[in-house]
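Box 3.1 A note on notation
Throughout this textbook, protein chains are presented in two layers. The first layer is the amino acid sequence; the second is a token string describing backbone geometry. Keep the layers aligned when reading.
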Amino acid sequence: MRYSALLLLFFFLVACGKDDHIDDPIIQEEEELYFPPLVGNTWERKSLATLEWDSTASLDLENYLASNGTRAFIILQNGRIVMERYWGNNITNTSSFQENSLWYWASAGKTLTAFLVGIAQEENLLSIEDKSSDYLGQGWTNMSLAQENNIKIKHQLMMTTGLDYTAADLDCTDDTCLVYLNEPGTQWYYHNAPYTLLESVVANASSETYNAFTDSRIEAKTGMDGTWIQQDYLNVYWSTARDAARFALLLLADGTWDGTPVLSDQTYLNQMRNTSQNLNESYGYLTWLNGKPSIIYPGLASPLGLQLSPNAPADLYTGMGKNGQFIEVVPSLNLVVIRMGEAPDNSLVPTQFHDDMWLRIKAMWE
């Protein structure tokens, strides 16, 4: 009797499992999330054959990436390297692009900054509900004091500060460039200056340089070895593609690295990786979100009835930067995807290239 009941339960679960996963592109046994050592080049790999991915489709993906200015491309599945390819020359054209070559994250570094703000809040160095002027000082804008005091750190994270986005230089962080246009929280616009000033918020709150804060809070705990470099008004993060993969793996692991908490505040992480305001559904805290019914692209002030990438999994979230820097996480598949390189087209952020890239990625398992 007991044996028969167990047998019936087994077949019921198998049947339910088949129904539940019929559309899943990756079906495999549960395995523990892998983290590479903090020091050295050791990184476990997983073959396409093991995953039963199509090697012909992978070659099509590689050819597409190579023909569109890609320098580095990595796919992790459960933390293990499935694909790792490099093309062309390094940034100075002095040697071929390799595993240890550095490249810029551009605006994909915004997601790293959002994570650092979360750490600063967790350490009670600041609250995202605080006025930005508490850390930037009065007069950081060219507004009245009352207008300036309405801008909070959370508005900088959401791209909803209300600063004038018709300004000639949206990178300019001088007070004369930061002029009132709308009340905070009422307009979404991709404005670099208030984002860049978050770095000063964190540095002033912690009494540390931004590089030192990044190193002690994230890099030392994950094995990353990048650096923030000032470029005109911008402060741009540079690293290897593997460093970018380490950060994406940290996000995939909900802020914990191989058992070591880096950011424990799951409420903040969930806010960061989900719609943060009701203006641009495809934007969290300095992070782009897929699968939403509308999006405001950089350079636009109103939403379009589109999602970020129709060919990508709906739960993908990503740091996206100029010229096609992508640091991407797909929780449902335990995937990380990294692309670094030159611009594949003339768009501010190459969303069409991104979607075509994902069409080819999915072809490997569909």
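The mean pLDDT is 92. Residues 48-129+190-362 form a domain with the Beta-lactamase fold (CATH 3.40.710.10).
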